[in-house]
Amino acid sequence: MPKQKSFIIKIKGFIKGVSYYFENGEPRERIPNPPTKDQIYNDPRFAAVRANNKEFGGASTFSKSIATGLKNNIHTFKDSRCTSRLTAALQKIIKKGSGTPGKREANILNGPENLIGFQLQKNNVFNRIFTVKYIVSTNEKRTKITIKIPNITPNNLKNYPKSATHFILTAALSTVSIHNWNSKIKKYKPDYPEVNGLGDTKKSEPLLCKIEHQNISIQLINPAKTTISDGVAITVWLGIIFGKETDNKFVPFETAKAMECIAIF
């Protein structure tokens, strides 16, 4: 067993993959052997690891469903870590589902607070850039989502480039079915695949930054051709992008943008 090379400072613990400890009064160091693939898949001691891996896979599938519904918006507004952050948020929701670990129900409605307020661009927080009160509602059949913004003043727009002259609001929805563990394919699978990952996007006209705007309404249409089950959640997103209008053409700024999940129905 290798000894610690220095006796000036004797350490004990696990640092950067190396375990430091004492044996018969002598300081020693050891690099623990990681578990083998066979151990992870078959050893009873790693049952919790296997369950966590299954649910992580389910969260990843969940994440893809949302991204599919958001369409080009995910590419327009996301940062480089968006997918991993979204998967982590959805894994928290799965842990609140019914069933045994590794096979728990994946249902966004079990923990909507883990998704509402999620930022596609972590460093650009939408509600700190667009400090406006808005109302989000849906009809009984959830075929229409309406976002009403009574008033926008220049003071409601924060932290945007001084050279920006206009901004555009982007509303989007993405449908997400309950997912459950499928023992045949050994993966999480949507219960309602025909209405999973559907989406709609609507944008406002370019709006001047330096004037007041009143009674803005954006309506999203659920693209499902049938009445959607209670087992399908509708995630609603709102984003903003700043730019400059030249010769009646809006040119968006690459970095001055943000989008967040504002509601779930």
Largest sheet: 5 strands, antiparallel
Shape: flat
Relative helix content: 10-25%
State the separation between the terminal residues, measured CA to CA: 60 Å
The stretches of 5 or more residues where confidence is low (pLDDT under 50) are none
Radius of gyration: 24 Å
| Structural class by SSE content | alpha+beta
SSE sequence, one letter per element: EEEHHHHHEEEEEEEEEE
Mean pLDDT: 88
Per DSSP, the total helix count is 5
Number of DSSP-assigned strands: 13
Strand proportion, as a percent range, falls in 35-45%
Explain what you see:
The chain is α+β, with helices and mostly antiparallel strands. It has five helices and 13 strands. The strands form four sheets. Strands 6, 9, 10, 12 and 13 form a five-stranded antiparallel beta sheet that branches. The chain has a three-stranded antiparallel beta sheet with strand order 1-2-3, with no helix packed on it. It has a three-stranded antiparallel beta sheet with strand order 4-5-11, with no helix packed on it. A hairpin with a 2-residue loop joins strand 12 (232-246) and strand 13 (249-264). The chain is flat and about 75 Å long. The mean pLDDT is 88.
